[in-house]
Write a structure and sequence with these properties.
The protein is α/β, with parallel strands linked by helices. 34% of the residues lie in helices and 11% in strands. It has two domains: 1-108, TIM Barrel (Alpha-Beta Barrel), CATH 3.20.20; 113-210, no CATH class. Strand 7 (132-133), helix 4 and strand 8 form a beta-alpha-beta unit. Helix 4 (139-152) runs parallel beside helix 5 (173-185).
């Protein structure tokens, strides 16, 4: 099973483990683009923690796109790949008052959003793919989401931050392992792929429709 890891190349977790990320990519995992400095809109309620130097509400379109392109270059130098997906930082899609969503198709085949919802084939916005942010759910709760997606023929995206205590948005190792075991058990019934891989599959399916 392959996954997508969204990377901001300025973070120590990337700089200090560059060789490990290169190996992960070589094993088929996607290194997705998560901007260079992970800016978020500090004008939103509850965003007092946003660093004023990286407050997306004060950015210009040119600045955010320059930082995204620099991050893209670094990731390409790491994994040698041209096709990858993007993830909005904090789910924010504007620099200042202007949206940069419309510029993403020039660089990415898809983009992950943060709305907790299932994605319905045939009506998926590939540049705002819904995902479930996971924080403290049990293995049973994660598995119930998988069952719901299977029953409805939906695309389900899990958004993990920490696994086993790595982040303040976290899921236990036990719950994560229960999910992995369940997916492995049903791998013949579920398509499991990276975000970029899923987007390519969706595009191909649309093209093959009569």
């Amino acid at each position: 099973m392959k996954g997508t890891f969204y990377i901001s190349a300025s973070f120590e977790g990337f700089r200090n483990r560059h060789d490990e990320w290169r190996k992960a990519a070589a094993h088929g995992h996607e290194l997705g683009n998560h901007t260079l400095f992970h800016p978020c809109d500090g004008s939103q309620p509850g965003r007092e923690w946003v660093n004023r130097d990286y407050d997306l509400s004060k950015y210009s379109i040119r600045r955010i796109m320059d930082e995204i392109r620099i991050n893209q270059f670094i990731l390409e130098q790491t994994d040698g790949k041209k096709v990858r997906s993007f993830a909005y930082t904090c789910g924010d899609m504007k620099a200042g008052s202007d949206s940069f969503m419309e510029l993403l198709p020039d660089l990415f085949n898809s983009a992950r959003g943060v709305r907790s919802a299932m994605n319905t084939p045939g009506s998926i916005d590939l540049y705002n793919i819904d995902s479930y942010m996971i924080n403290g759910q049990s293995g049973d709760e994660l598995i119930r989401l998988v069952d719901e997606a299977m029953e409805g023929g939906k695309l389900l995206v899990f958004l993990f931050h920490g696994v086993g205590g790595e982040h303040n948005l976290d899921v236990s190792l036990e719950a994560h392992q229960e999910l992995i075991n369940y997916l492995k058990k049903h791998e013949s019934d579920i398509r499991i792929d990276t975000m970029a891989g899923i987007a390519e599959h969706i595009r191909k399916a649309e093209q093959e429709k009569p």
